[in-house]
Amino acid sequence: MGTNEYKEYWETVESIAKDIVDSSTFAELENHDCHGRAWETVDGSEYVSYYYKNIVVLEYTDNEDAFNSTGMGLDTSKGWRSILTQVAFCAMLQDVQDKIERLISERIEKKEEMIEQYTDRANAERESGTEIEIDMLLESISICNEKSGMEYFFQNDQYNELIKRYEDSNVEVFNGEMDVEDLILADLVNW
User: Fold this and answer.
1) pTM of this prediction?
2) Burial (CB count within 10 angstroms: exposed 0-12, middle 13-18, buried 19+), residue 92
């Protein structure tokens, strides 16, 4: 077995894990709801489908004994190739799940850093005299800073578009943990 097989196997594990994490919401990641997709993806992988690829998995996995912890019993009725496939599946699944866990930790850490940065930027805007008022009844947003003379006013369709954009961003990026006012104030730098 060569280093190319090693590299290809771990690139596949990385790619599967990254695709699953990238297509998951923060809520799914924090609740670990994405592992079912790992099962399905690994089950359809060439590393599980082809016997010669099963051997590659077992050569390079970090989890050659993963079948012991899955709770799956080995079906020995179909011969050694079936056993090889089952063991390779469990090993690769655990490799992918381990990588998913690392990516989730990185994503959550990054989210927490971004929340801190956005909160700091919003607070800096407030300290510089910027005020924001969101009036849901009148469907308006007023942002002003008397010191700098800055004024923004959004109403009706503009208000709805702005609120939707920041609420969607809050859910997608921050899992709903940011205040919409803080998001808008933090983003003023980009206006």
Assistant:
1) 0.70
2) buried
